[in-house]
Amino acid sequence: MSGEISAADGALQRGAGIVSSSKQDIIGELNSIQSQLSSIGSSWQGAGAAAFTQTFQAWQEKSRRITNALDEFEQNLRDSQSAYTQTDDTSAQSQNKFMGRLG
After folding, report:
1. Could you tell me which residues belong to the region Disordered (predicted)?
2. CA angle 83-26-13, nearest 5°?
3. Angle at Cα 49 formed by Cα 46 and Cα 58, nearest 5°?
């Protein structure tokens, strides 16, 4: 059927690879931003610096949550592909047994 989504032919595995690659790109960007922002905070003093540090730490935590969610999503795709493949293999074995009985 046209437009149907299928897990066949490693589609979920390819999706997991795309998520992984995108996550690495995001991590690279986050590390670059973090490097730039930490140099700003190191020379700053006073209440503004404390507020900046607190905000920066919250940003780092949110960034970790995003990358952790991407890790989980990637693993879920890989697990789904494995489950799909296992179910498909089991179904094929059952069909082959049935065909063997029919002679």
Report:
1. 79-103
2. 20
3. 145
Sign of CA dihedral 82, 83, 88, 94: positive
Write down the residue that tokens 């009985």 correspond to.
101
Q: What is the pTM of this model?
A: 0.71
* Interval 44-59: pLDDT, tens: 889 998 898 899 999 9
Domains (ranges, CATH) in the chain? 1-100 (1.10.287.1060)
Task: Confirm if 58 and 18 have CB atoms less than 8 A apart.
Answer: no
**What does the buried/exposed string (b/e) look like for 70-103 if buried means 16 or more CB atoms within 10 Å of the residue's CB?**
beeebeebbeebeebeeeeeeeeeeeeeeeeeee
Cα–Cα distance measured from residue 55 to residue 5, given in angstroms and rounded to the nearest whole number: 42
